Amino acid sequence: MIKEQIQLIKIDQIDRPLKISRDIIDPEKVRELAESIREKGLLQPVLLRPSNGRFEMVAGDRRYLAHKLLNLKEIKAIVRELDDRETVIIRAIENIQRVDLTPSEEGRVYLALKEEGGLNQKDIAKRTGKSQNTVVRYMNFARCSEEVRRAVDRKEISLLCLETLQEIDDPEAFSYHFKMAASNGVTEKVARLWVDDYLKTKLGTYYDGDGGAPPLNVETDNKPIFITCEVCLGPCEIKVVRNMVVCPDCRKKVRGFNVKA
C-alpha cells in the first residue's frame, strides 16, 4: 500500500462541507483542540478532496476550525481523489466515532450511509462497529418529527421510553402521552403502564356498539393514573401523592390556602 503524502495546504483554499452532520459544534471543544494544537502541533492531518480548483473538507472539520481560531495560514492535509459516495462514507465513519453525538446526529449518520452511501444495514453495522439493531433503532428515530427528536436529544425522554410509547398507534393518543412523558420525565416502566392501559382500552372498543358488550376480562372501571416518584423514579398512583415540589415564589402564593394532607 502506497503511503499518502502529507501536504501543507493554505487555509483560505479550503471549503467546509456543504452538509454539516453536527447540529452544533461546541466552540469550547474547538478552543480546547486549538490549545492542544498550539502546544503539541497537529497530530493527525485533515483529509481533503480537490474541488473546482480548491479543496473540500472531507474529514477533520474541527481541526480546521481550530487552525482558523489560531490564525494559522496552513494546515497539514492529505489530498485524495474521492467521489461523492466515498466522501459520504468517510465522513460518516469519522462522525460516528465521536462520543458526544446526540441521538438525532447518530441516526442521521446511519441514514446518510444508507441513502447516500448505498450501504445496507449489515454493511453499516460492520463499518461502524455497531449492532444491526442499534442501526435500525437510530435510523427509525432519525425519521421522527423534530419535536420528538428534540425532546430525546435534550434528555427530556429516553429513546427506550419513546419506543415504548410508539406502540400507541393513534396519533392523538401518542401525542398526548408523549408530551406528558417529556414534561414529567417518566421512566420506561411508567410508559409501559400507559401503553398497556391504552391497549386494554382499545381492545374494549372492539366490543362496543354494534359489536355487543365488552368481554368479561376487559376492565371497565376508571383506570389509575401514574406519575414518576422523584426519589426512586418508579411509578406511583397520583391519587396517593401527598406532596409536590414548588419553588419559593410559588410557595408564597399558595401559603394562604389550606391544603389537606
Question: Topology, please?
Answer:
Elements: E1 7-10, E2 14-15, H1 27-40, E3 46-51, E4 54-59, H2 61-69, E5 74-79, H3 84-96, H4 103-115, H5 121-128, H6 132-142, H7 146-153, H8 159-165, H9 171-184, H10 188-205, E6 226-228, E7 235-237, H11 248-254
Parallel strand pairs: 2-4, 3-5
Antiparallel strand pairs: 1-5, 3-4, 6-7
Helix pairs in contact: 1-2, 3-4, 4-6, 5-6, 8-10
**Briefly, what CATH class of the largest domain?**
Alpha Beta
User: Can you count the beta strands?
Assistant: 7
Low-confidence stretches: 211-220, 257-261
Oligomer: single chain
The appropriate CATH architecture of the largest domain is Alpha-Beta Complex
- Strand arrangement in the largest pleated sheet: 1-5-3-4-2
Write down the secondary-structure element order.
Answer: EEHEEHEHHHHHHHHEEH
Largest sheet: 5 strands, mixed
Q: If you compute it from the alpha carbons, what radius of gyration comes out, rounded to the nearest whole angstrom? A: 26 Å
Q: Give the count of structural domains.
A: 2
Global geometry: elongated
Average predicted confidence as pLDDT: 83
Give the percentage of residues in beta strands: 5-15%
Distance between the termini: 77 Å
- Classify the secondary structure makeup into a structural class: alpha/beta
